[in-house]
Amino acid sequence: MQDNKRLAKLGHVYLALMLVFLYVPIIIMAAMSFNDSNLYRLPIEWSTRWYAALAHNDKLIDASINSLWVAAITTVLATALGTAASLAFFRYEFRGKRLLQLLAFPPITIPWLIIGTAMLTLFFWIGMGRGLHAMVLGHVALAMPYVIIVVSARLKSFDLALEEAARSLGASSWQVTMRVTLPWIAPGVMAAALFAFAVSFDQFVISYFLSAPGVSTLPVEIYTSIRKGFTPEINAISTIVIGISMVLLLGVSRFYRFGGER
Amino acid sequence: MAQVSIRGVSKTFGQMKALDDVSCEFANGKFYALLGPSGSGKTTLLRMIAGFEFADSGTILMDGESVDNLPVEKRDIGMVFQNYALFPNMNVFDNVAFGLSVRGTDTTETARRVGESLELVKLEGLDKRRPHQLSGGQRQRVALARALVTNPRVLLLDEPLSALDRALRVEMEVELRRIQRDVGITTIFVTHDQEEALTMSDHIGILNAGRMVQEGPPLQVYEHPNSAFSASFLGDSNLLHGTARDGRITLTDGGLIACANRIDETDGSPATGSIRPEKITIMDSKDSVADPDRNSLDGTVVSHIFAGSSLTYQIRWNDEILRVFVQNLSGDIFADGTPVRLSWKPDDTVAVTHD
Ligand SMILES: Nc1ncnc2c1ncn2[C@@H]1O[C@H](COP(=O)(O)OP(=O)(O)O)[C@@H](O)[C@H]1O
Ligand SMILES: [Mg+2]
Question: Domains along chain A?
Answer without folding.
Answer: 57-255 (1.10.3720.10)
